[in-house]
Amino acid sequence: MSSPRPLDFLTTGAWIVLALAVLSSAAYLAWPVPSRPGRQFWLFSPPNEQHYRAALGRWNAAQPNPADHANLTLIHFQALERRLVAAFTVDAPVADLVETESLMMARAFGAPLADIGFVDLTDRLRAEGLFDRINAPSFSVWTTRGRTFALPHDVHPCLLAYRADLVEAAGIDVSTIETWDDFRRVLGPLIRDLDGDGRPDRYLLNFWETNRDLVTVLLRQAGAQFFDADQRLELDTARNAHVLASLVSWIAGPGRFCVDAPEFTAGGDAMRLDGTVLCSILPDWQAGTWKNYLPGLGGKVKLMRLPAWEPGGRRTSVWGGTSLGITKAAPDFERSWALAKYLYLSPQVAESLFRATSIISPVKELWTLPFYHEPDPYFSGQKVGALYIAEAPHVPERRSSPHAAFVMDRMVTVLSALKARAVAQGQFDAPALLPEARRLLALAQRDLSVRIDRNVLAGSAP
């Protein structure tokens, strides 16, 4: 018998692929990978990048040692999230400082406290008095099991933007609105059929059951917490059922006053411009977006506090959030910490950010600075910064969890199912929908609890 030849085991093409793989692996291992000296800083937000570059230019100019310079890298949101997951699970390379979004940070909180990839800042924040200097509720979403892992970048309180030109022309005084029931009653006459086809052409509020962010904003305003202090699910509550049943009456039936005018779409923007929708829930960052991308509303809109769910209730909510964390891979925590404070406590960065995006700083001592109290022509001369700052201490706290995103998705599913049942039965009265709301929430809680318990990599860890 003849000796076996290489081609007897693999085809010619397969041998070529294997050879190329070996050569490329050898080249990768042998090739010198240049590294930039200094601290690496990753972020995902293009609006933040321009403000940081100017600040970091001043920082680097003041650092004689190149090892103390800061190098900024903008990374797409999903790519940054994947990099963080890789870094915290298989020790892939990661930056010294990373600016993250709330749901991105929550992914890191599935590990035991000792294994979270960000440095625990709790003791340092307390020792340096930063828990007192920074808006207290803004820490909640960056905190798990009583320990805080990041500096908050913002507050993101919500106000209600309304078409003041149309509302005031109708002789309506919005100061008489305290609750959402008042909102429906006082502004209800503005829902009109303008073209005579028997269907309304004007609605009061931009809201729809498919908008996960807005559903979450309204639930949080009402005091909903999707998790308890130990990260256990907390969906099946009377409060959640009440809010969801009420929302169905907003979007369906004879009392409907909402319409779907999605943000960041040409169709939704057209509906805001032509008055199809009169009011929108507006976090501070969205106010900046309107000024930049909807100039046609300039001088036609004003801001007011959100209507409360009941008399004396909370008149704001929270939407979004960003923070700065220091990874455990950072070789010099003290220098990274100094850089983080330089950026996040800086009056210059706060002013630059507000003027470009309307985002207010969570640093309370900065709230008296003049730029927050200047009249804004876009919002009919209102002092926009001061209005958002007044609500900052009242934003709801948020309990963070690695399961938050799909729990929020499930709440949207529950609301959609509840609406479908209401339409099928022709029953749109909120109290009558409460039993079905509780039933759907109980099903969701049981189902999600089973799914979460199966996830051994992101369970409730000590």
Instruction: Give the radius of gyration.
Output: 26 Å
CATH class of the largest domain, named Alpha Beta
Taken as a percent bin, the fraction of beta residues is 5-15%
Number of H/I helices: 17
Mean pLDDT score, rounded?
91
CATH architecture of the largest domain: 3-Layer(aba) Sandwich
What is the total tally of β strands?
Answer: 12
Helix content: 40-55%
Q: What is the helix/strand order?
A: HEHEHEHHHEEEEHHEHHEHEHEEHHHHH
Please identify which CATH superfamily of the largest domain we are dealing with.
Answer: Periplasmic binding protein-like II
Task: Output the strand order for the largest sheet.
Answer: 2-1-3-12-6
The major beta sheet can be summarized as: 5 strands, mixed
CATH fold description of the largest domain: D-Maltodextrin-Binding Protein, domain 2
Structural class: alpha/beta
Sum up the overall morphology in one term: globular
List low-confidence stretches. none
